[in-house]
Specification:
Elements (H helix, E strand, L loop, with lengths): L11 H34 L11 H23 L7 H15 L3 H18 L1 H5 L3 H35 L14 E5 L4 H12 L3 E6 L2 H12 L5 E5 L5 H14 L5 E4 L14 H29 L2 E6 L12 H23 L5 E8 L23 H13 L4 E4 L2 H9 L4 H10 L18
Parallel strand pairs: 1-2, 1-4, 2-3, 4-5, 5-6, 6-7
Helix pairs in contact: 1-2, 1-6, 2-3, 3-4, 3-6, 7-8, 7-12, 9-10, 10-11
Length: 448
Amino acid sequence: MTVLEAADGYDTSDAIISRIVAFIFFCSGCFALPATIIIFWLTLRHKQIRNKPINWSIFNFALVDLVFGVSAAMQSASFSGMVDSLTPLQLVTAVIFEHLFTLQAQKRIDCNVAVVTQLIKKHPNEMAGGNNLWYIPQLIVETTVEVVRGFVIVFVYTLIGAVKALLPCGWLPRKSVAGDIVLITGAGSGLGRLLAQRFAALGSRLILWDINEQGNEETAELVKKLGADVHTYTVDLSSRVDIQLAAERVKKEIGDVDILINNAGVVTGKQFLECPDYLMEKTLEVNTGALFWTVKSFLGKMMEKNHGHVVTIASAAGLFGTNGLADYCASKFAAVGFSESLALEIKAARASDVHISVVCPYFINTGMFEGVSTLWPNLIPILEPEYVVDRTMETILTNNPVLVMPRFVYFVYFAKGFLPIKAQLFLGDFFGVTKSMAFFKGRASSSA
């Protein structure tokens, strides 16, 4: 839609955001221009620097900001039918101001010519008619407003996400999972058992998968006491065939899964060169491969009904490399990347009520990482399973896409994006990442 077109069908939310952007432009220009004038007036009156050349290009930013603000305001008004579009005229005025007051006018002109040339190539049909003089400034203004609008949206989403990440459990509205069929892998112990108990208390129907038949049955007995409808399956999650056969049984005997929680995991805890090949293969098969086969078995029906949730219990080791966990980190990095890509596929398919969540906790005191240590227990503590389950349930019930624990790891992950490698290695030593696995013992059968 161009600024000369009617406002029919224009999204109300877009119109509101456009007005916000216009208001920001206009206000910043109104404040910047007088402030610049005052600064120059005081500079000229100062005897010590009166004879120094004045950098008139400073005016460029204030004037262009003000004129573009008026332009954006008029464009926003034109969408609501308040006035006819005056955007082209104002844009031309802005360009004139820009070239009058900039010290790099020729560079700006060359740049604008290059932009216009590209616009002509990309929009030959619009440029072929008689309105080409007006079309270029219209498109430039529309693009400018759209870019700023994008920045505003990103800022708002970032602010909302930060607030949600820091809120205590229970403050956000939760969805109901009563009657939903919930499949939990690795349900025979640790987080899987605790998650099963929480969902049982909420009235969900449970399907428990684990290679440890005894542990799985013990979990089933616990949730039956809470009145849950529960079904157990002994499944080798390192086997694609075993997973697919079990999935077919679930579909025939119980129905379509509404919430899939990929919780099962194994860890070797050995230095890379000392780790046997078969253990590394097992790590990748359980921690990564099982995600592919379980999701592929159940996601189709979720998409068809536009209802479902896929939860991946990954690890903070899927965000940062850790000494002594090369194979484990590789599998968890893959799990995080898989979840992110899957979320994008679902968004592109417009399945608005199918959700993807990935949970990335630090070491958990479940026995799986028995013997690990932390140098900063107040900042990066060994997490208690009950706390992890509380936060994970909050993530699932509020459809939160990403959970990282403890909260300090959010800041570390943010810093990783811009710190140089040597600085990251220094911080790794400082926080004890290179030594945390020094006394690792684990357990013979490690399931998250």
